[in-house]
Design brief:
The protein has helices at about 10-15, 25-35, 60-75, 95-105, 120-130, 140-145, 160-165, 215-220, 235-250, 260-270, 280-285, 310-315, 420-425, 465-475, and strands spanning about 45-50, 55-60, 85-90, 110, 135, 155-160, 185-190, 200-205, 230, 255, 275-280, 300-305, 320-325, 345, 345-355, 360-365, 375-380, 385-390, 405-410, 425-430, 430-440, 445-450, 455-460, 460-465, 480-490, 495-505. The chain has about 500 residues and is α/β, with parallel strands linked by helices. Strands 1, 2, 9, 10, 11, 12, 15, 16, 17, 18, 19, 20, 21 and 22 form a 14-stranded mixed beta sheet that branches. Strands 6-5-3-4-7-8 form a 6-stranded mixed beta sheet, sandwiched between helices.
């Protein structure tokens, strides 16, 4: 690691909060122009050497721009023009982010795809998107899918290795000036589902995807000692959101290519992060079994988004690490004084968000001292104009009543690509429905009970899976390592029955 800091000075970060024209389509250019430490490596990729040791490779802002411009030159040479969607099917890590930067620099629209999606589903999805081209790590199965339906084949289907090997010289591709994004330009298409169902193509807008993230410029921990490990999928809005934040801050960040503990823990030990950002899946692995004491020695914050996490896992993770003096409150919470003394243990920032919400819009912080409060995701954060629990007619229900979680916020997606009917299905009485079932208490705190599609409809009324999972994981920890509560069909007239699929502790009978 370089002794010279890569972090943008505070006055630079304050200017970025109100910089006209800054958005999700050009944040790298703004970081290059504003950060005087643009040549200091800060974004790290990782691999193992021939002896299995972790090797970290750093990239500066200027390095990222050079990679972006080389990839962009390849795309332009292959006929990609502004406003055209292009499928990106590359493995997790830094690579999909470079493709995102390259395509947005041309004004094109990267359609980021999880490479675990079935080839036939992927081909159908990209046809719906209208992708003019496709870049993938492995094109064999995709080529076969297109041979069975050649009319849907894009203009090009290319190996990502061709793009990496492209030699474009230096400067902007073909001497073209940088594309200037309008506030409502589409900068990416992010699918939800895809490995578990029919993928929906969520639009990310240039200004929309930046809205709400401005407070992170001064409220995200960015001290000289801070280091972020990003375990988000980087073909997903969550990974893109944390990458955008890290680039604008100049925050040292290792971009992980694998979320499994067997890969994550050795990189933690080598990188010594102070923060980890992930979906719950990695936190479940880290919180079960032997705790990663060595890798988490300096961790002060765990950032979770997507579905909210379980207390049984959170309470084990916050035992690890240390909270330094001066640690600021997370950006999800109202501003306040920083801690004035170091404390043992760490904080778990549990954010409820989605690609459609644009970011985590609700947040709850748990520390070793926090009383248990199952399923609480806190209050809506500053980007939310109004959050409510609604009935099926779009009317607010009284506090304590279960209903549909809904928000009014500029950070919400403009909608689903090529699917206005689906978009309208998530709009109700001026709100965007998040797809969650929740209740609000008299203090204005929200409680996340289930996804709307996961509610179990029994003959005696709805059963919500997440509170049951909380009890099994936290209160039966000596027997249950992890679990999932689902509904199965009962006998005729009985509706569904809830069952728990349980992963027992190794020593449990």
């Amino acid at each position: 690691m370089s002794e010279t800091t890569s972090i943008a000075p505070l006055e630079v970060r304050r200017r970025l909060m109100t910089e006209p024209g800054l958005g999700a389509g050009n944040f790298l250019d703004h970081a290059l122009a504003a950060n005087p430490n643009r040549d200091v490596p800060f974004v790290y990729s990782h691999h193992n050497d021939h002896l299995g040791r972790v090797v970290l490779r750093g990239h500066s802002l200027t390095d990222l721009a050079a990679l972006r411009d080389r990839y962009a030159a390849w795309y332009r040479a292959n006929g990609v023009r502004p406003g055209e969607p292009v499928g990106v099917v590359v493995g997790e890590g830094l690579e999909p982010l470079i493709h995102f930067l390259a395509l947005t620099s041309l004004g094109a629209i990267p359609a980021m795809v999880n490479d675990a999606m079935r080839p036939d589903v992927m081909a159908g999805y990209l046809d719906h998107v209208g992708a003019v081209g496709l870049v993938a790590d492995d094109t064999t199965r995709l080529q076969a899918a297109y041979r069975s339906n050649p009319r849907n084949r894009p203009r090009f289907v290319a190996l990502s290795s061709e793009v990496r090997a492209h030699d474009a010289g230096s400067g902007a591709p073909d001497g073209e000036p940088p594309y200037r994004h309008a506030p409502d330009d589409v900068v990416a298409l992010i699918h939800s589902s895809g490995t578990t169902g029919v993928p929906k193509s969520t639009i990310l807008g240039h200004l929309q995807f930046w809205d709400g993230k401005q407070p992170r410029m001064v409220r995200f921990p960015a001290e000289p000692y801070d280091r972020l490990m990003s375990l988000m999928p980087h073909t997903h809005a969550g990974g893109l959101s944390y990458f955008l934040t890290a680039v604008l801050l100049g925050l040292p960040t290792v971009v992980m290519s694998d979320w499994r503990r067997v890969t994550v823990e050795p990189v933690m030990e080598a990188f010594q992060p102070t923060m980890l950002a992930s979906f719950p899946r990695t936190f479940v692995e880290l919180a079960t079994g032997d705790l990663p004491v060595k890798g988490a020695a300096r961790v002060h914050s765990w950032f979770n988004t997507g579905d909210s996490a379980h207390h049984g896992h959170i309470r084990r993770l916050v035992r690890l690490g240390e909270r330094p003096a001066g640690l600021i409150k997370p950006w999800l919470l109202p501003g306040g004084a920083a801690s004035d003394e170091p404390l043992p243990g760490s904080q778990f920032v549990d954010g409820l968000g989605s690609s459609e919400m644009g970011m985590a819009l609700f947040g709850q912080v748990t520390t070793p001292e926090t009383p248990r409060n199952d399923r609480c995701v806190g209050k809506a954060q500053e980007a939310v104009i109004h959050a409510a629990v609604l009935d099926e007619n779009g009317e607010e229900v009284p506090d304590g009543t279960v209903g549909l979680l809904a928000v009014i916020t500029p950070s919400r997606t403009p909608g689903y690509w090529n699917d206005p009917k689906l978009t309208s299905g998530f709009e109700l009485n001026g709100y965007w429905l998040t797809g969650d079932v929740a209740r609000r208490d008299g203090e204005g705190d929200f409680y996340h009970l289930d996804r709307t599609v996961d509610v179990i409809d029994t003959v005696d009324g709805p059963v919500y899976s997440l509170p049951i999972e909380e009890v099994l994981i936290a209160d039966c920890a000596d027997l249950v390592r992890d679990c999932s509560v689902v509904g199965v069909p009962g006998r005729p007239g009985e509706g569904q029955r809830p069952i728990a699929v349980v992963l027992p502790q190794a020593e449990a009978e």
